[in-house]
Amino acid sequence: MPAKKTNSSAADKVKATSTKTAKPAVKKVSKPAKKAAAKPTTASAVKTKKVTAKAPAAPKATTPPPVVEQTPVIALEEIQLRAYFISERRETMGWPGNSSTDWIEAEAQLVAEAKRRLKKTS
Hints:
Elements: H1 10-21, H2 34-38, H3 76-93, H4 99-121
Helix pairs in contact: 3-4
C-alpha cells in the first residue's frame, strides 16, 4: 500500500517553527561569597581558645642499654687444628660429612668453649 501524502497547512508550519526557535531565557544566579559566609559577624559567634599551663612532665626512668653478647675471636690456626681432628675422627668412624661441616663444627666448639671460660672468670 502506497504511503499517503498529506498537505500541511501554513499554520502547522508556523507552529512547528515557532516551538523550535522559542527558548526561555536563562538567568544566571550569582553565588554568595564564600569568605563572607565563612566569617562570623558577631562577637558571640567567635569561639576563643583557652590556654592552660601544663604541669612539667616527670623525668622518665632510664633503662640500661641491652647487653650485647659478643662472639669471642678465635685464631684461624686453632680452627684448622680442631677441624683436622674432627675430620680424622669422622673418617675413622665412617660418619657422613665433608671438610666444610668439619670447619663449622670446629668453629662452633671453640666459640662455646671460649664463652664457658668467660662465664667462669666473670
